[in-house]
Amino acid sequence: MSANMKVAELTGEEITIQERTPFQIVMMRFRKHRLAMAALVVITLIFMLTLFAPYLANFEVTEISVGDYFLPFGAVDEDTGRVHYLGTDNIGRDYFSRLIFAGRVSLTVALISVLISETTGVIIGAISGYYGGALDNVLMRFVEFMLTIPSLPLLLIISSMLLANEDLIPIPAIVLNTFGKIMLLNPRDTRSAVLIIMVLAGFGWLGSAQLMRGMVLQIKQQTFVEAARSLGASNTWIIFKHMIPNAMAPIIVSASLGLAGYVVAEAALAFLGFGIQDPVPTWGNMLSATQTFMMDKPWLPLVPGLPIFICSLSFNYIGDGLRDALDPRLKM
Amino acid sequence: MNTLSQKPERKPDLLVIKDLVKYFPIRGGLFKRTKAMVKAVDEVSFTIREGETLGLVGESGCGKTTLGRCILRLVEPTSGSINFMGQELTELRPRAMKELRREMQIIFQDPIASLDPRMPIGNSVVEGLAIQNIGTSKERFEIAINMLRKVGLEDYHARRYPHEFSGGQRQRIGIARALTLQPKFLVCDEPVSALDVSIQSQVLNILKELQRELGLTYLFIAHNLSVVEHISDRVAVMYLGKIVEVTSRKELYLNPLHPYTKALLAAIPIPDPTIKRERLVLKGDVPSPVNPPSGCRFHTRCPFVFDHCSQETPPLREVHPDHWAACWLVE
Question: How would you write chain B as a 3-class SS string?
Answer without folding.
Answer: CHHHCCCCCCCCEEEEEEEEEEEEEEEECCCCEEEEEEEEEEEEEEEEECCCEEEEECCCCCCHHHHHHHHCCCCCCCEEEEEECCEEHHHCCHHHHHHHHHHEEEECCCCCCCCCCCCCHHHHHHHHHHHHCCCCHHHHHHHHHHHHHHCCCCHHHHHCCHHHCCHHHHHHHHHHHHHCCCCCEEEEECCCCCCCHHHHHHHHHHHHHHHHHHCCEEEEEECCHHHHHHHCCEEEEEECCEEEEEEEHHHHHHCCCCHHHHHHHHCCCCCCCCCCCCCCCCCCCCCCCCCCCCCCCCCCCCCCCCHHHHCCCCCCEEEECCEEECCCCCC
